[in-house]
Design a protein that fits this description.
8 strands; about 45% helix; globular
């Protein structure tokens, strides 16, 4: 497996567009009014004002700090929370990821000792370049409904929205359609997309932004190399465990004999077990 992954494999900073995660976070975190406008056209809600915008909001869920990071997270004057996720490439688990992000959002809002009724409304918005459900819709909005009575919506305040820049049908406003078209073409067609475009251009020339981007890129590369190396180690660990346990089961030999036959010690076997166990930490 090739570990020679370096900075030349990273997209050049000056070529980043709004659909690149770093630029998406940078532009929106420094332009709260754009967050407000996007939230209004996507959700159809009129918003008086929003609070501070947090880019890549870390949500820790394990003792060692592992968890997920939101792209853009903010709330409005009524306390409704918004999580914007740019999805340049679709993953196979988008639906369950949205469920997971919603749960983490609820955990953040509902502090110990508070009532469930104090959970604020929330919108989890995935902005996708490709169709996440292959139905051709520009926009997919999900709320919990009753199977027996589809008109009955579970009023839990949670809404998940998937925008599809490659959509071809559906009832959306011109504002949303222009925004989706901008994601594909990088050509502004109205005031909102022109504002986004004008916010992206100076960021591309920002030395500070480029330095931060390259520092993050280096960290990503280091983490990827570590991940690959650990993956290789896990593969060897699985092979050792399988070999030893197969020998014990089918040849009725002791653990010591099985390990010796595999050219390893009992300590090697238990270390392999520990490695695989530690790799199951939830991300």
């Amino acid at each position: 497996m090739n570990l020679n992954y370096n900075l030349t494999d990273i997209k050049p900073y000056k070529e980043l567009t709004f659909t690149d995660d770093f630029m998406f976070c940078l532009v929106l975190s420094e332009n709260p009014d754009l967050c407000k406008q996007l939230a209004e056209i996507i959700t159809g809600r009129k918003i008086a004002r929003i609070g501070a915008v947090n880019e890549q909001k870390p949500i820790k869920i394990t003792s060692d700090g592992k968890g997920v990071r939101f792209d853009i997270y903010f709330s409005d004057n009524e306390g409704t929370a918004y999580d914007f996720e740019m999805q340049r490439f679709l993953k196979s688990d988008e639906s369950k990821r949205s469920r997971y992000y919603q749960a983490l959002n609820d955990m953040r809002m509902l502090r110990h000792g508070h009532y469930y009724s104090e959970l604020n409304d929330c919108y989890i918005v995935f902005i996708c370049l490709d169709d996440p459900f292959d139905e051709g819709l520009y926009k997919y909005t999900f709320r919990n409904r009753c199977d027996e009575d589809p008109d009955l919506i579970l009023d839990d305040g949670a809404t998940r929205i998937f925008l599809n820049a490659s959509g071809t049908n559906g009832n959306i406003t011109d504002d949303v359609k222009n925004f989706l078209n901008y994601l594909v073409t990088n050509k502004a067609a109205d005031d909102l997309t022109a504002t986004i475009n004008s916010a992206v251009e100076p960021q591309r020339e920002s030395e500070k932004g480029e330095v931060i981007y390259m520092e993050l890129a280096e960290k990503y590369i280091d983490q990827r190399k570590i991940g690959i190396a650990e993956g290789m180690a896990e593969g060897k660990a699985e092979q050792l465990i399988s070999s030893v346990e197969t020998a014990m089961k089918f040849y009725n030999v002791s653990l010591e004999t099985a390990c010796e036959g595999a050219g390893k010690t009992v300590t090697d076997y238990y270390n392999a077990k520990k490695l695989l166990e530690s790799s199951k930490t939830l991300y």
